[in-house]
Design brief:
388 residues; mainly alpha; 76% helix; 0% strand; globular
C-alpha cells in the first residue's frame, strides 16, 4: 500500500467523517473521565483538585493530539488503525494508573503518557514523509514531547510535592508548545496558517468528547440515586442535576457545535482558529462538566442542610467553567461575545455570597436555572437570526 494512501481522502468536498475506529478509541477516555471524577470525589481538597486538574490536562492533551492526527491520517488504513489500537492499550494502562498516579503508580502513568505522546508523533512524522511540512512539524512535536518526557519520568520517580512540580513543568512545556509553533533550533517553527486542518472533523471529534463527559455526569447521578431511598428531596436533587446536564447539552449542541464546524471550515486561518478553540479553550467546558458531575453526587447524597464549602464551589464552579469555556470558544471562532453566557457567568457570581447559607438542593436548583436561562435566551436569539 502506498504511504500516501494513509491520508484521508477529502476529494469529495465534504468534511472527513468520524470513523468507528475513532469511536472505539474514545472508549478508553470514557474510562479516563470516570476515573478523574471519582478521584475528585475521593479527594475533595485543594491538593486533590490540583492533582485531578493536572491529570485532566494530561488526559485531554493525549486525546486532542490524537484528534489532530486523525484529522490527516485515515484510521481505516491498517498502519493507522494499528497505531490507534496500540495507543488504546497504552491508554488503558495510563487510565488504570490515574487513582494512584500520585502514589505507587506514578512512574507507570508517566511512562504510558510519554509513550502515547512520543509514539504517536513519531509515527505521524513517518506516515506523512511524502508531505515535508507536516512530517517536519511532527518531528518538531516529537522533540518537544521527548523533552517534556524527561520531566514526566523524573516526576514518576519522585514523590509528593516534587512529583507535582515536575509534572506541572512538563505540562507547561507541552501546553506552550503549540503557541510557539513547536519551535526547534535548526528546524524553525510551524505557522498556524500553514496547517491544513479539516474543521468539520475536528469539531465533530470534540463534540463527541463533550458527549463522553456528559455521559459520565448522567452515570454519576443515576448510580448515586439508585443506591438511595427515593424521598421527595432525593428525587428533586436528581431532577435538578439532570436538568442541568440537559441545559449544558442544549447550550453546546443546539447553538455551538454545528455552527463552529462551518465557521472553522471557512476561516482564513483554520489552523489558528482550531488551535485556540479546540486545543486550548475546549478543555474548560469539559472540566466544567466533570466538576458539575461531582457536585451532583454530593447534592443527591445530602440535599438538605447548609451547603459546605466544597459543594458550593463545585455547584457554582462547574457551570462557571462550562459557560466561561463557551464565551471564550465563541470569541475564538465567531469573533463575538456570547452575551447570554456572559450574563450567566455574572448570575453565578451573584450566587456566591448566599451559597453557604442555603441548602445544596436550593443552590443546585439556582445554578440549573441559570443554565436553563442561558439556553432559552440563546434559543430566542438564534430563532430571531434565522427568521430575519
Amino acid at each position: 500500500m502506498s504511504r500516501r494512501h494513509m491520508l484521508r481522502d477529502r476529494a469529495s468536498g465534504g468534511h472527513a467523517r468520524v470513523t468507528y475506529v475513532e469511536l472505539f478509541f474514545d472508549l478508553v477516555f470514557v474510562f479516563a473521565v470516570t476515573q478523574l471524577s471519582h478521584g475528585l470525589l475521593a479527594h475533595p481538597s485543594l491538593l486533590g483538585l490540583v492533582e485531578t486538574g493536572l491529570l485532566l490536562m494530561a488526559v485531554w492533551w493525549a486525546w486532542i493530539f490524537m484528534a489532530w492526527v486523525t484529522n490527516w491520517l485515515d484510521p481505516e488504513r491498517a498502519p493507522v488503525r494499528i497505531m490507534l489500537f496500540v495507543a488504546m492499550v497504552v491508554g488503558m494502562v495510563m487510565t488504570m494508573s490515574i487513582p494512584e498516579a500520585f502514589g505507587d503508580r506514578g512512574l507507570v502513568f508517566a511512562l504510558a503518557f510519554v509513550a502515547i505522546q512520543l509514539g504517536r508523533s513519531l509515527f505521524t512524522a513517518w506516515a506523512m514523509r511524502d508531505h515535508p511540512f507536516q512530517s517536519r512539524n511532527f518531528i518538531r512535536i516529537s522533540i518537544w514531547f521527548a523533552t517534556s518526557g524527561v520531566l514526566w519520568i523524573a516526576g514518576g520517580l519522585a514523590e509528593g510535592g516534587a512529583r507535582l512540580a515536575l509534572w506541572g513543568g512538563a505540562l507547561a512545556l507541552e501546553y506552550v508548545s503549540p503557541a510557539l509553533g513547536f519551535w526547534v533550533p535548526g528546524l524553525g517553527r510551524a505557522r498556524a496558517e500553514e496547517w491544513d486542518v479539516e474543521g468539520g472533523h475536528l469539531a465533530e471529534r470534540c463534540a463527541l468528547f463533550t458527549i463522553i463527559a456528559l455521559g459520565e455526569s448522567i452515570l454519576v447521578m443515576g448510580a448515586t440515586t439508585a443506591t438511595l431511598a427515593w424521598t421527595p428531596m432525593i428525587i428533586a436533587a436528581f431532577l435538578a442535576s439532570f436538568a442541568g446536564s440537559l441545559a449544558m447539552w442544549w447550550i453546546y449542541f443546539a447553538f455551538t457545535a454545528e455552527a463552529a464546524s462551518e465557521a472553522i471550515s471557512h476561516a482564513k486561518e483554520p489552523g489558528r482558529v482550531a488551535r485556540e478553540a479546540y486545543t486550548y479553550i475546549h478543555l474548560l467546558p469539559i472540566a466544567g462538566i466533570i466538576v458539575t458531575a461531582v457536585a451532583d453526587e454530593w447534592t443527591i447524597h445530602h440535599p438538605l442542610g447548609h451547603t459546605d464549602l466544597k459543594t458550593a464551589l463545585a455547584l457554582i464552579g462547574g457551570p462557571f467553567l462550562f459557560l466561561l469555556g463557551g464565551v471564550l470558544f465563541k470569541r475564538a471562532v465567531f469573533r463575538a461575545w456570547a452575551r447570554a453566557q456572559v450574563v450567566g457567568l455574572l448570575a453565578l457570581v451573584a450566587l456566591a455570597p448566599i451559597s453557604l447559607a442555603v441548602s445544596p438542593l436550593a443552590l443546585s436548583i439556582a445554578t440549573t436555572a441559570v443554565l436553563l436561562g442561558v439556553s432559552v435566551r440563546e434559543g430566542l436569539v438564534r430563532r430571531a437570526k434565522t427568521s430575519a
